[in-house]
Amino acid sequence: MPTEAQQSPVPLAVLLICHQDDECGTYFQILRHRQQGRRVVCACFTRGVMGDRDETPRNTESIDVLGRLGVDASDIVFAGSLLGIDDQALIDNMPAAAEWLHEWLGSLGPVEVIYTTAWEGGHSDHDTLHAISAQVCHELGLLDKLRQYSLYNSYQRPGQFFRALYPLPVNGPVERTRIPWPLRFRFLSFSFLYPSQIKGWLGIFPFFVLHYFFRGTAQLQAVSLERIAERPHEGALYYEKRGFSTWDHVQLRISEWLASRPHTPAHQSQNANMLKHQVDMRDLTASNPKWSKIARFLGMDALAAKMDSSLCQQAELTARLATLEQQLAASQYPRESTDKGAQMILALRYKELARQGEVLPFDAVEFRNYSQFGEDGILHYLFSLVGTTNRRAVEMCAGNGIECNSTNLILNHDWHALLLDGSRKNVEEGRRFYSVHPRTQFIVPVFLLSWLKRDNVNGLLRDTGFTGEVDLFSLDMDGTDYWIWDAITEISPRVVVVEVNLHMGSEPLTVPYSDKFMAQWIELPSVPGSASSQGRQLQNWTMYGGASLAAFNQLAKSKGYRLIGCNSMGFNVFFMRDDVGADLFPEVSLASCQKPGASDDVKRATKILLQQGLQRV
Hints:
The chain is an alpha/beta fold. It has 20 helices and 20 strands. It has helices at 27-35, 56-68, 79-83, 94-107, 124-140, 181-189, 198-215, 238-241, 247-259, 265-281, 290-297, 301-330, 340-355, 375-386, 407-413, 424-436, 457-463, 481-487, 549-559, 599-612, and strands spanning 12-17, 40-44, 76-78, 111-117, 146-149, 152-153, 163-164, 175-178, 217-222, 392-396, 416-421, 446-449, 468-475, 491-499, 509-510, 520-523, 541-544, 561-566, 572-577, 615-616. A hairpin with a 5-residue loop joins β18 (561-566) and β19 (572-577). The longest helix has 30 residues, at 301-330. The model is unreliable at 1-8, 263-288, 326-331 and 531-537 (pLDDT under 50).
């Protein structure tokens, strides 16, 4: 479970926040619940900071303020820290946050009320949490218990001005409770208990003073699924004015996430609104409905009716076109078998098992989103336990970059990568894929066209800025792989994945080095009495290229790496630097990576490859 809190037979009050001061919107409700003897639990869905900044000061401040209201520190869960969600990044982590919330709420027992941030366009994280909580509560049958609290918005405010603690009228009736004067002063004093956010509080404090002196009420509104398909309010939203995000972006990401959830009125309304938005973007209204108004003004009602009918038909056709465009866009990307949310949950489970001393075999953690086989799952497992340093990857012979070992890390875990390939077609296809993919619109991987050689590989790394420590190095050239890794000195990867040639047997063998080496597929002599088969299957074909596992293991040891396992097929093997994760992933034997029952095929193939010319290293 996401929390170790015991289930309570007494109905709980649940507070959902995005940042470690958002509780300011519910001071009165929290205090009232605690005074009535009711337990209050709180979950914060972002780290409240970005990048490498430490969220501990913000966590401590929130624990202090909530503690003054009577909330026990053990009832506060910093889910954003558990899931690694930065400030302003909740919109890109909706699957993980939703899965966590779904499991957490389901573990709490009876719930009396749930408080979530309002749908008001103040901060994109606030609107995202509102959408997540509305959908999850709907799925759990708790939507009637969900209430939204306002923090700030720019409704009917010019420039950078905003309203604080002001519920939007469009969100429905307001449940108001008057706050006694002593508590108003007490709540205002809490504003000085967030020293790490002093700049932000200096800006918002005057508006809190106005609220407590002139309105002096605690204000809540019910939550409607249909509202998350609509713009929070007319005019520019506050996060748009500040340049942090746009409604188009928020709407698109929420729609993508809703499409993965069970069909709901919100999902249907969201899709309808997206179609309407695309119609608007085509300037459908440029058909000048004003002319129909003029026609009516002149008494030409029949003409006006025809113009209106024509406009409706055009709208319907445009909506159909928009639907087709959406379907076409969706088909451009491979469908993931294990999405980002599921991977976040898996990572938490892996860490929990590791704390209990249980390390899983690689074939138990395999999954394939973009890798050739189960490498996506193995890499996710490795980095879930040993962590990352800079989330940088280098993949050589990455193909088109869509099916390779780095793609899942790039798209679902915000890694930056250098992808290299010698095929112009592959590189151009990969560049197109990443340039339009919504998850790489800000950080596009470096995709380089180059024929890799011993004397240029280090220069390519230097020229692209990929030097020093990287978290992952993947090599699959089907050629002079051994010699290229041997030549590399510019990077120090923590994890290395290489493809070995199983047909070279148990000796340390590789193809000789040549700048112009090209792999060759060679058909093996048929075995008398065996069934014929078509295609390049292991039993009737072999490849002259690459190196044996023994050769790569020998090279890895000389560079300070140990063999830690292989994929279930046996030909993609994983090495880990000796100073990384030795307690979790000790060295394994070469025999553990050999595929059972393949010895006869290997002997046949090895004989042919030796005739082609192999070099012992």
